[in-house]
Amino acid sequence: MSKKTLTLMSKDKQLFNIEEHLAVQSVTIRNMVKEDGASSVIPLPRVDSETLALVIEYLNRQQAPEEDEDYVKKFVDERGEIPTLLELAQAALDLDIKKLMDAACMKVADLIKDFTLEEVREALRIENDRTPEEEKAIRDEFQWAF
Amino acid sequence: MMVHQQTTEEIDIFISEKIKPNFVWFRTLIDPLWKDLPEELMIDILSRLTVKTVIHCKLVCKKWRDLILDSSFVNLHLSKSPTVPIPGHHVIPLLLLFLTVRQPKVLMVAAMNDGQWTVVVEAIEEIIVVEVEEANGGGVVVEVVILVEEVVEVANGVGVGVGGDRWCGGGCRGDRWCSWPTVVVEVAMFGEEVVVQEMVEVVCGGYR
Q: Is the ipTM of this complex over 0.90?
């Protein structure tokens, strides 16, 4: 019996094949397969092809269960760039792959914990919409934290 | 009229001098990474940071401040903080206390429940565990006194505190609060979960 293959489609319309028994590590896909057999292409409108390639790489891993924790940690460690990690976390959120999402979020938290405010804003491309007065009020209130 | 035709070199210079330096700034306008991210994800990331970093993050932008001030965030943060659950005890996230108390030097806390002082069972990093008996209807008011660095003399009442590495008596009652900053936290309990409803007040008495 040949193994059943599913096709995932990224935001930019690229197609990726993956064996069903590996794809169902994603709770989202598992539910789709359960419901309608997911014979057609599964669209992932928020996941770009680069990120989806990473997710497929992760799903295809051949790790013994006891080494899995270390593997996922190493997997996100190797993609240490914040934008990549955030894309990965978002894909893992959409696909409901908890371990991957946890690891990616943990890595981002780990990276930003020592950043200055400006560095956080720059890394996450956030516009500063706090006024200097608001900033001073918080700094005064929480002097011990600064 | 002469029309100046830009040469390729001129365009290259223009790009390297004018456009590239502004690229990072420009990218923030065209590609606001954060705005595209699901809130759930950002909350998840913020909940993995220490209390101190969370306070820093309140300054990052209004959106983050609102996320952090949301009570569901407090609960999530609590659930991710290191703790040793003790059966029959309830935990109050120190995050909340930090959010209203200016003194950083928390050594120990004493909690008051329904007029009775309660011994704090354990304080582990960001978590304070207090012994609280559930009142009728599931709601209780817990007053938590945070003792600062010095051991202070108290007027009356009993409580438990620790100054430095020594245990001592502490805490006081009535309107004569000692100079310990006091945080009153109202909590409602549902099963084992402590849901924080409201920060009632912060009292810094002038007893000393």
A: no
For residue B179, give the nearest of B143, B161, B154, B144 by alpha carbon. B154
Q: Do B45 and A144 touch (CB under 8 A)?
A: no
pLDDT (tens digit, 9 = 90+) per residue, A120-145? Answer: 888 888 888 888 998 888 887 666 56
Q: Cα dist. B132→A67, B53, B162, B181 in Å?
A: 42, 29, 20, 21
How many CB contacts within 8 angstroms connect chain A with chain B?
88
CB contact under 8 Å between B45 and A120, yes or no, is no
* Closest CA relative to residue B106, chosen from B127, B88, B89, B87: B127
In single-letter form, the type of residue at position B124 comes to I
- Dihedral of CA atoms A76, A80, A85, A86 in degrees, nearest 10, equals 150
**CB atoms < 10 A from the CB of B2, how many?**
4
Report which of A34, A41, A36, A43 is spatially closest to residue A5, judged by C-alpha positions.
A41
- In the numeric block, the tokens 């935001």 are attached to A11
pLDDT in tens, B41-53: 888 998 888 766 7
- Residue A123's alpha-carbon distances to A52, A111, A140, B27, in angstroms, are 22, 10, 26, 11
Half-sphere exposure of B138 (CA within 13 A, CB side): 10
For chain B, strand residue ranges (E) read 90-93, 108-113, 116-118, 120-124, 127-130, 139-147, 160-163, 166-169, 182-190, 193-203
